[in-house]
């Protein structure tokens, strides 16, 4: 296990390096210059050049990249051009809001998606199953920005029962959390359904029935524990989608989280903040997948011993 | 009380819905299992042996399989008519089952001791600790070395024979009065088969429980069973005391199966298989289902469906579903 962890951590470093390198390059390839954005349209060419020099943007790309990597290794993630504060501090200050949103969405998905998937599987090929399956297909294929706007129209404008954006009490959390949860929840329903249907005719499920266990016990834990193995893997991978979803949802609902910070930073060409935010999100993604892999070993003892 | 059979199956019919149509996997089978006896249920794959067992256990795969007629009376209670929850409590407690493939029958993600202990926890409300101790005891009883150390291992850490011993330990946990073993040795190495068979026979004798032993291997059960039930295409074709059936087989199918057993004393002979293939249950032959494969068949056999009946000159208990049972027995009807 320690050797396995060390291998995984080393691999994670490569993943993060790849993420920051790609974002570093892409940021500098897209049109738009931070100095020009910062100074506005009235600035003279010499003013822009002077600011570029101060920001270190006059160096060759490879030198800028080298300096950036050196700084990152020293845990210095650069600063915001716009606000002159440490970029990572800015990201972390927005983290609680995003975490709140992600945890609420994740909780909603698991609390609703898993039971719905179980019901669909136990009632396979009945009307109940069809309704659940069609709804989850719709949920999975509807884009978050559209769902978000429709929610605002229906619940904030027409019915006026929930706020359309911003933060405050739990009411502010409902619409963005549901919007963010929807695709994730839908995938969870479908995965749980197929996972359970796959194991329901296995020999050990028959054994559990022959042992005279209650049907509830036959499903939990006998069948479900096996059905969960593939579900957990895909949930880990899908968590990246959820993180990506926060960018859209936070923008639609004016939710002051990391995602919205990232979008603002991109439009202002605030390189430092974009890089810090992407590195942070990539780091969370890598960490979640590491946790999932460890959990996988816990769920499937055959993997645990091989690892 | 002791005269009434422990298990009495009457006119059992099980229907399966398949993609290709409906199948009568079991069609009007009746038999008794007496207290403490061993009944061997014999037949080729697809003859309905396992489905019969699943029907008794109430674990037919749903919604595909369904009992459509008959009764299964255990100790005076009709399992098909009684409250499902009460029948469920009988399972594992009074009636237990051992399956063919011990790897797929054990849950891969739970420790074996936990799986055995579950019998005590769920049925008897035992504590985790007591259940685990009882599991160790059972594992020792079925001959698993270092049971105390291995109780927390997972199924994949055991060999095939050891896994089947664990299945047997689990089935015997609550001292059932009826054990159904469905091809318990088929998935195992030949050398292990005899050990498992002996273990089952020994435990049956010590516990005084009844055993229904389902197999396609006539050689395996000759020494351990009291009575035999031969099934073909979902029906009982011959039944009786096992020595009587083996020595005086009165159905051509039984004779065919006996002839296909390798004889070690005559090593150079070729094996004699039952000719033809098992019938397609979706499209059973008319009359006697066996007639297309039967060396004795006449025109009558393709029209007239024979019933299980006593045979002239043999004990009342010995029955055969062949129009020409007496002639087959006397060897009068030479294969055509």
Tertiary shape of chain A: flat
Q: Could you describe the largest sheet of chain B, including whether it forms a barrel? A: 8 strands, mixed
Strand order in the largest sheet of chain B: 6-7-8-3-9-10-12-11
Strand content of chain B: 15-25%
Quickly count the domains of chain B: 2
Residue share in helix of chain B: 25-40%
Low-confidence stretches of chain B: none
Can you describe this structure in just a few lines?
The complex is a heterodimer of chains A (307) and B (336). With 307 residues, chain A is mostly helical.
Structural summary, described in words:
The complex is a heterodimer of chains A (307) and B (336). By secondary structure, chain A is mainly alpha-helical. Chain A has one domain: MetI-like (MetI-like fold). Chain A is built from 13 helices and no strands. In chain A, helix 1 runs antiparallel to helix 12, helix 5 packs across helix 8 and helix 5 packs parallel to helix 12. The termini of chain A are close together. Chain B has 336 residues and is an alpha/beta fold. Chain B folds into two domains: 202 residues, Rossmann fold (3-Layer(aba) Sandwich); 74 residues. Chain B is built from twelve helices and twelve strands. An eight-stranded mixed beta sheet of chain B has the order 6-7-8-3-9-10-12-11, sandwiched between helices. Chain B has a four-stranded antiparallel beta sheet with strand order 2-1-4-5, covered by helices on one side. In chain B, helix 7 packs parallel to helix 8. The radius of gyration of chain B is 21 Å and the shape is globular. The mean pLDDT of chain B is 92. Chains A and B meet through helix 9, helix 10 and helix 13 of A and helix 2 and helix 4 of B.
């Amino acid at each position: 296990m320690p050797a396995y962890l060390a291998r995984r951590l080393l691999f994670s470093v490569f993943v993060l390096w790849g993420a920051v390198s790609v974002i570093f390059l892409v940021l500098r390839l897209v049109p738009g210059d931070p100095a020009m954005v910062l100074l506005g349209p009235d600035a003279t060419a010499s003013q822009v050049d002077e600011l570029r020099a101060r920001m270190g943007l006059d160096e060759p790309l490879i030198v800028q990249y080298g300096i950036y990597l050196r700084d990152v290794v020293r845990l210095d993630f650069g600063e915001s051009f716009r606000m002159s504060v440490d970029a990572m501090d800015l990201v972390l200050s927005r983290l609680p809001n995003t975490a709140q949103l992600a945890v609420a969405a994740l909780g909603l998905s698991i609390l609703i998606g898993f039971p719905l998937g179980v019901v669909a599987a136990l009632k396979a090929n009945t009307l109940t199953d069809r309704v659940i399956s069609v709804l989850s297909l719709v949920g999975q294929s509807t884009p978050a920005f559209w769902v978000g706007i429709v929610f605002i129209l229906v619940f904030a404008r027409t019915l006026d029962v929930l706020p359309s954006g911003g933060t405050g009490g739990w009411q502010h959390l409902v619409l963005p959390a549901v919007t963010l949860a929807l695709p994730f929840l839908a995938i969870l329903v479908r995965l749980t359904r197929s996972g359970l249907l796959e194991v329901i005719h296995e020999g050990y499920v028959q054994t559990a029935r022959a042992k005279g266990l209650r049907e509830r016990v036959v499903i939990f834990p006998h069948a479900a524990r096996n059905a969960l193995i593939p579900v957990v893997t895909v949930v880990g991978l899908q968590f990246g989608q959820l993180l990506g979803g926060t960018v859209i949802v936070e923008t639609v609902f004016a939710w002051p989280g990391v995602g919205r910070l990232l979008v603002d930073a991109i439009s202002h060409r605030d390189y430092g903040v974009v890089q810090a935010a992407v590195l942070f999100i990539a780091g969370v993604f890598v960490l979640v997948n590491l946790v999932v892999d460890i959990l996988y070993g816990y769920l499937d003892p055959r993997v645990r011993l091989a690892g | 009380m002791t005269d009434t059979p422990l298990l009495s199956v009457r006119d059992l019919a099980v229907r399966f819905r398949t993609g290709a149509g409906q199948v009568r996997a079991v069609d009007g089978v009746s038999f008794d299992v007496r207290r403490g006896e061993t009944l061997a249920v014999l037949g080729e794959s697809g003859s309905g042996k396992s489905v019969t067992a699943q029907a008794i256990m109430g674990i037919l795969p749903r919604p595909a399989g369904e009992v459509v007629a008959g009764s299964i009376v255990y100790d005076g209670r009709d399992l098909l008519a009684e409250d499902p929850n009460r029948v469920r409590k009988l399972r594992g407690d009074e009636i237990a089952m051992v399956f063919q493939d011990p790897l797929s029958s054990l849950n891969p993600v739970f420790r074996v001791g936990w799986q055995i202990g579950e019998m005590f926890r769920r049925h008897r409300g035992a504590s985790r600790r007591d259940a685990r101790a009882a599991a160790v005891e059972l594992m020792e009883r079925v001959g698993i070395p270092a049971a105390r150390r291995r109780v927390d291992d997972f199924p994949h850490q055991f060999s095939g024979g050891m896994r089947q011993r664990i299945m047997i330990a689990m089935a015997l946990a609550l001292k059932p009065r009826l054990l159904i073993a469905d091809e318990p040795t088929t998935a195992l190495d030949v050398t292990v088969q005899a050990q498992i068979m002996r273990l089952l026979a020994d435990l049956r004798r010590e516990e005084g429980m009844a055993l229904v032993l389902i197999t396609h291997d006539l050689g395996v059960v000759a020494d351990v069973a009291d009575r035999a039930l031969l099934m073909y295409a979902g029906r009982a074709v011959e039944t009786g005391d096992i020595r009587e059936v083996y020595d005086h087989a009165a159905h051509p199918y039984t004779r065919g199966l006996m002839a296909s057993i390798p004889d070690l004393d005559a090593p150079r002979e070729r094996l004699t298989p039952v000719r033809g293939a098992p019938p397609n249950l979706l499209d059973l032959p008319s009359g006697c289902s066996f007639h297309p494969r039967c060396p004795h068949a006449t025109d009558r056999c393709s029209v007239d469906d024979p019933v299980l009946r006593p045979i002239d000159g043999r004990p009342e208990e010995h029955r055969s579903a062949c129009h020409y049972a007496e002639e087959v027995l006397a060897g009068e009807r030479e294969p055509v």
